[in-house]
Design brief:
heterodimer; A: alpha/beta; Rossmann fold; six-stranded parallel beta sheet; five-stranded parallel beta sheet; 21 helices; 36% helix; B: alpha/beta; globular
Chain lengths: 580, 200
């Protein structure tokens, strides 16, 4: 199973009662798999929360009653949840609480490459790092025990290659029923008003010292003695690359790297002649080993940008040994092939709104989701991305700065509920006039179609409210709220013209289901009238993968076309009609 | 066939998001497990799946550490699109085999005039990977009655280069596809395997 499936399995085996999260690659499949166990585990509750901060607090509340809890998110999600994270280190937990955070070295599907290990040290919270699927299972179970024993939340950090690689996992039985959750009032523990928080602050350091002692002799940290010439300290997926590139080296594998097991590190350093630290992203271990006064190398040979791989480490090894880089490491990719970046699907409703925006001279502040793909040519109609919600707020900031072009903010339905609402409130409250478009495709599409407060369904498959984006807009004080079909090109071009002239803010909800979640039953593929086509490029300008144009004249690939008809609407000659 | 440095067999499956690459890698991984190997695989999720170039990696042997295939070490490749075969050819070891679908999917970068589709893709493939078989997988799949079996046809061709017993492949297909589609997928696998010409 994958690392994410193994984490879900462990949550089931370990009798986690409450599991919450917000979707984000590479963490999403944990809850998607865990919810499958709810059929046979009546004491297991799972939810997609509107954002990571909410998810974290839901899990924290559960854990304070003595229940076991898990919260999952991607690395940037912990930024959103950083507020409760930092203080929960103070209040601690009663039931076991594991915070699963998945990093994305190499940025396969992320906007930055931050290293979550900093948060462990920042928050003074123990950190576990599995190196494969088996450890992903084992470490969740160990983390729950550890969390209860020390009354501290535990951070479990995976990376893309741990979460999305598959390897064999030996499963265990589900643990025995745990006592019923019951919250015991204890303000000195759970209410960090300054008088109590100062005591918690001292207790936190004491707990960290005890955790350090436990990490020194934990089986999660393992010394593998081979040749004493070279010793390598490593953690997580890097361990796998180390074993392949340095098969003879001794290895200190840190499954529980923080609090740093100093005595263990010193002991290992004393047993080898040369010490190397191999870690992905930041040089956290290396700097600590050096601070201990131990001579070691790390960043000098091992790069800190992007993910490590066997060839990357082979180059590090060659550099260390002063040898030329081996021929195998030098094989390079053919550079002159046409790129194939991800693109909005054929029939994607987002494309309709981008096509309409192309008729206006506007700055478009974007957000995190499929619509981020609108930045690429030929659409090229998205100008900024910062984080979830910033599509709304940055539009407001640009407008307030006195910027001389009109600004339109774009975000999705899931990101609107995640952190768009507060931004919209800000625009109305502070008398802004930015226009905000919510591309509402009724799902969290990019991460693989998860439900959210607007879909009418929970993660556990129960029917629920359909939160209305329009109502939120009106409640925030936005007077001009429009609901449109994103494929109504002429209507949307005209509406945008009207909205951009206004001195008041507007909210446009462009609603049509994601083409992947609601495939047309009987799509009518289009066909371009080749006789009359003048190759003006309007239709290829919408960047639809079904419109192929390899020889100057476009044609529609009928296998890919979903029959949305947007290509016909942008064609000045209306030459693109249903094929049949 | 395994690489010379290690006893690990590395295989890559490449194509365009949505072509059934993950099913192909699942069947291969299950077959290798059924044959008694330790297996690790890696796949791509999220943004990389939206019609982009996709690679799945499978490694098996007595003991496997990295789930990622190092460049220059794969002994075989299944490619569901011809320029994707060229894009990942540097993952192959010298002499390695590639089963390649003739299929062309024009990327948006070509349609919008930012790049051109190489006209000499087949010649370049012959040069980059002399030991390969080009298969009209889409045409064969249509003949079998289901265009969606094209991926299993290419997998069948790939299987001709791997030392895994037929029984392992059969059980892997049975485990990975729904009962209603087993017969047609076995037929697709056999058709692909028969079409392959592997130089050993």
């Amino acid at each position: 199973m994958s690392g994410n499936e193994a984490i879900a399995r462990a949550a089931y085996e370990g009798r986690v009662n409450v599991a919450s999260g917000y979707p984000g690659t590479p963490s999403t499949e944990i809850l998607e798999n865990l919810v499958k166990y709810t059929d046979k585990a009546s004491d297991l509750y799972c939810e997609w929360s509107p954002n990571e901060k909410v998810a974290f607090e839901v899990a924290a509340g559960a854990a304070m009653t003595g229940a076991r809890a898990m919260v999952t998110m991607k690395h940037v999600g912990l930024n959103v949840a950083a507020d409760p994270f930092m203080t929960m280190a103070y209040t601690g937990t009663v039931g076991g609480m594991v915070i699963v955070v998945a990093d994305d070295p190499g940025m396969h599907s992320s906007q930055n490459e931050q290293d979550t290990r900093h948060y462990a040290r920042f928050g003074k919270v123990p950190l576990l790092e599995p190196a494969d699927s088996q450890e992903s299972r084992d470490f969740v179970l160990a983390g729950l025990e550890l969390s209860e024993a020390y009354q501290s939340p535990v951070l479990l950090r995976t990376t893309t290659r741990v979460s999305h690689s598959r390897s064999v996992v030996t499963l265990g039985e589900r643990q025995l029923q745990r006592p019923m959750p019951a919250f015991d009032r204890n303000p000195v523990r759970f209410v960090p008003i300054p008088a109590y928080a100062r005591k918690m602050r001292v207790a936190l350091e004491d707990r960290l010292a005890r955790l350090k002692q436990a990490a020194e002799c934990s089986p999660l940290n393992r010394m593998e003695m081979r040749n004493s010439e070279l010793g390598i300290i490593t953690a997580g997926i890097s361990y796998q690359y180390v074993r392949e590139v340095f098969p003879d080296a001794s290895v200190l594998k840190l499954g529980w790297p923080f609090p740093f097991p100093d005595a263990l590190i010193r002991d290992f350093a004393g047993k080898v002649r040369q010490l190397l630290v191999v870690e992905e992203l930041d040089d956290i271990l290396e700097q600590h080993v050096k601070a201990l006064g131990l001579a070691c190398e790390g960043r000098k040979f091992v790069p800190g940008i992007g993910e490590l791989t066997v060839p990357v480490l082979q180059q590090s090894k060659a550099k260390m040994e002063g040898k030329p880089i081996s021929a195998a490491a030098l094989v390079s990719q053919a550079r002159d092939l046409p790129g194939r970046p991800p693109t909005l699907c054929a029939g994607c409703p987002h494309r309709g709104m981008f096509a309409a925006l192309k008729y206006h001279d506007v700055i478009v502040t974007g957000d995190i989701g499929c619509y981020a793909l609108g930045v690429l040519p030929p659409l090229s109609k998205l100008d900024t991305i910062l984080c979830m919600g910033a599509g709304v707020t940055m539009a407001h900031g640009m407008q307030k700065a006195g910027n001389n072009r009109k600004v339109v903010g774009i975000l999705g339905d899931s990101t609107f509920f995640h952190s768009g609402i507060t931004g919209l409130l800000d625009i109305a409250y502070n008398r802004g006039n930015a226009a905000i478009i919510v591309l509402d495709n009724r799902t969290t599409a990019m991460t693989g179609h998860q439900d959210h407060p607007g879909t009418g369904r929970t993660l556990m498959g129960q029917p629920t409210i359909h939160a209305s984006i329009e109502d939120f807009g009106r409640a925030c004080g936005i007077k001009h709220v429009h609901t449109v079909d994103p494929m109504d090109l002429d209507g949307n071009i005209a509406l945008l013209g009207e909205v951009l002239q206004r001195e008041e803010p507007s909210l446009i909800v462009a609603r049509a289901p994601c083409i992947l979640s609601e495939k047309p039953v009987d799509p009518q593929p289009r066909k371009i009238d080749a006789e009359q086509c003048v190759a003006c490029g309007q239709c290829v300008g919408i960047g639809c993968p079904a419109i192929e144009c390899a020889d100057g004249y476009p044609h529609v690939n009928e296998l890919l076309c979903n029959g949305c008809g947007l290509c016909d609407r942008v064609c000045d000659l209306r030459l693109v009609q249903p094929a049949k | 066939m395994t690489t010379t440095q290690t006893s690990i067999t590395s295989v890559i499956l490449v194509g365009v998001g949505g072509q059934g690459i993950l099913l192909g890698s699942e069947i291969l991984a299950r077959a290798a497990m059924a044959a008694g190997h330790e297996v690790k695989t890696n796949e791509v999720h999220g943004m990389a799946q939206r019609g982009g170039s996709v690679v799945a990696q499978v490694r098996f042997g007595r003991e496997v550490f990295s789930p990622l295939v190092p460049e220059g070490t794969a002994c075989a490749m299944a490619a569901f699109e011809i320029i994707e075969a060229l894009r990942y050819a540097h993952y192959l070891a010298p002499g390695a085999f590639a089963a390649v679908a003739q299929h062309r999917i024009i990327p948006v970068t070509v349609s919008s005039g930012q790049a051109s589709y190489p006209l000499d893709a087949e010649a370049r493939l012959a040069q980059a990977v002399p030991n390969h078989t080009l298969i009209d997988a889409a045409g064969m799949a249509q003949q079998l009655g289901n265009i969606r079996t094209a991926n299993v046809i290419v997998l069948g061709a790939l299987s001709a280069a791997l030392d895994l017993p037929m029984t392992a492949w059969r059980s892997a297909i049975d485990a990975a596809v729904k009962p209603a589609y087993r017969t047609i997928n076995h037929a697709a696998f056999d058709a692909g395997r028969d079409a392959a010409h592997v130089v050993r």
